[in-house]
UniProtKB/TrEMBL annotation, chains A, B:
Originating organism: Lacticaseibacillus sharpeae JCM 1186 = DSM 20505
Pfam family, one: FA_synthesis
One cellular component (GO) term of this entry: cytoplasm
E.C. no: 2.3.1.274
Binding partners and assembly: Homodimer. Probably interacts with PlsY.
Record pathway: Lipid metabolism; phospholipid metabolism
Full protein name: Phosphate acyltransferase
Classification via PANTHER family: FATTY ACID/PHOSPHOLIPID SYNTHESIS PROTEIN PLSX (PTHR30100), PHOSPHATE ACYLTRANSFERASE (PTHR30100:SF1)
GO biological process, one term: phospholipid biosynthetic process
Cellular localisation: Cytoplasm
Predominant localisation class: cytoplasm
Gene this chain is encoded by: plsX
InterPro entries recorded: FA_synthesis, Phospholipid_synth_PlsX-like
């Protein structure tokens, strides 16, 4: 398989990108890479060009550019060229640590949507306390407004991903809502609940509240992009703040604190690792014709490496083809809920 | 001042309610209490009936009842009687640890809304790392659907509360959104942003993301009830899960873990206290004609005590009157944003 890599996106590009790509290349014989970016910067970083080629370009999309305009105007940008490689069948999937908005635009306008899917959803994998598989949640911010049929499509796509890529048998699909009762929420969430309950081939377990996500209440959490964004950022912010406070308490706790910290170092490191989602790779823009995966702008080489493995799993498992087949068979429109 | 207390609402009622009320009574000479509930249960718990009277009733609203129906049918329920005492001017404010939905219904149908306020918002006070004042957030779930004018009203009400009850000079008011730029979010949040920017007497600092709430990014966080509910529960769930994991790591860490835990006990206890919001009292149903405040169903006597102090501060500061005056002067309709 061939993966198109935007080598210039991200805070530490191209260095961390190249390092992560080479680690994946060394371990995974089946992957070839095409790196899009400044050859003068990339070439000196490469240990070897085995299964790595470079397509030289000096244009790149900056983080503060208007996403749609940038993608339309900068036709030679590294991200845009990588997207075209996927569109033209030269690559099977695409990686970028650049602007999420620009990647969404490149995905929509160049790679293209799966037939009938209204909007791609942005889907990260998050840790859960009880399972090493974690859980996926979508949409977390590709869209601010959603309709029930879009949430249905997210559920179907997240289900295939959780099953094939995360290896979860019969994933438990749930709707993020403001209570667990079926009648909870606004119109959007009440309608979506009925649709998901009527959907074929989905193990829909009902509503879930954001308080129980990290406890592993569901494997696939379906949410509108606005609420999903708020929940995701609240989880990230709270873990970050709490772990920072604990670290500060240890450092400022004098001899007692430092000694206690030393004794608990292993345990706390274990917790930090457990809640570090980077081993699951990046966030997938699910709903496009090929895997398009976004790593954090601040991603280090290890995260880039895991994101490449994640893309490999999506390509090998033909996740996108399965989604296309499902929608071809069952329709992209949400099923009509049975009246009760 | 007189506070009407629903003595039968909550998991440990009436015991914890009575204990918390007596502690407040012993310390605060200015407060009189009327306890609504089963006198046969309440009387034996009382150390003294100084400034505490009991209105006997055996009817109460259960947690799983339909809120509106329960409030309408159970005319002798402890919560309903307490609400009527406020409505009839016999009490200045009301406390309950019972069903949130029922309290909202009792607030709307019995206590009544502030003229022109569309819907009351549920407002807890949450801790922030940098300030002992914490921050308030509303709405966190009284309403699943909101219009921009309602969010404007939340901003005004939260502002008075933060200033007068929390003692924050010129509170920083922010809109919870999916990005900090003014153009972020769906229609509701874009419109609300413009309205808040045009509102008089509000120190509106723009959008805030849920990742920075605990870091004290704002003093008053304005949000629609659905998003606010998701953010609040994500914060609560993440802190709970993380602190539980740390405790488990200490307990399962053998001698090393236990010794480390012992050394860090004070530091970790400090963090737990810092993130324990119960010292701020309960969640206010803001937008009603009088202070109506809800403690957690699982509230202990200490939380009940702090919630009584919170109610006292609202009555003493005339927070509700100030809100009424503001709306009388500036109108309850959202100001027209200036076109740019």
């Amino acid at each position: 398989m061939k993966i198109a890599v935007d080598a210039m996106g991200g805070d530490n590009a191209p260095a961390t990108i190249v390092e992560g790509v080479e680690r994946a290349r060394d371990e995974q014989q089946a992957i070839e890479f095409v790196l899009y970016g400044d050859e003068n910067q990339i070439r000196p970083l490469l240990k070897s060009d085995e299964r790595i080629s470079i397509v030289h370009t000096t244009e790149k999309i900056e983080m503060d550019e208007h996403p749609v305009k940038a993608v339309r105007r900068k036709k030679q940008a590294s991200m845009v060229l990588a997207a075209h490689a996927v569109k033209d069948g030269e690559a099977d999937a695409m990686f970028s640590a650049g602007s999420t908005g620009a990647l969404l635009a490149a995905g929509l306008f160049i790679v293209g949507r799966i037939r009938g899917v209204d909007r791609p959803g942005l889907m990260p994998t998050l840790p859960s306390v009880n399972s090493d598989s974690g859980f996926v949640m979508l949409d977390v911010g590709a869209n601010a407004d959603n309709r029930p049929s879009q949430l249905y499509q997210y559920a179907v796509m997240g289900n295939f991903y959780a099953r094939d890529v995360r290896g979860i048998k019969n994933p438990r699909v749930a709707l993020l809502n403001n209570g667990t009762e079926p009648t909870k929420g606004d119109d959007l969430h009440q309608q979506t609940h009925q649709i998901l309950a009527a959907a074929q081939g989905l193990n829909f377990i009902g509503n879930v509240e954001s308080s129980s996500l990290l406890d592993g209440a569901a494997d696939v959490v379906v949410t509108d992009g606005f609420t999903g964004n708020a929940a995701l950022k609240a989880i990230e912010g709270t873990s970050h703040t709490l772990l920072h406070e604990i670290k500060a308490a240890i450092m400022n706790g004098g001899i007692k604190g430092k000694l206690g910290g030393l004794l608990l170092k292993g345990s706390i490191k274990g917790i930090v690792q457990k809640f570090d989602a980077s081993r699951y790779g990046g966030a997938v823009l699910l709903g496009l014709q090929a895997p398009v995966v976004k790593a954090h702008g601040a991603a280090d080489a290890t995260t880039v490496y895991y994101t490449i493995l994640q893309i490999q799993a999506m390509v090998e498992n033909k996740t996108i083809s399965k989604v296309i087949d499902y929608f071809a068979e069952h329709g992209v429109d949400s099923p009509t809920p049975t009246q009760d």
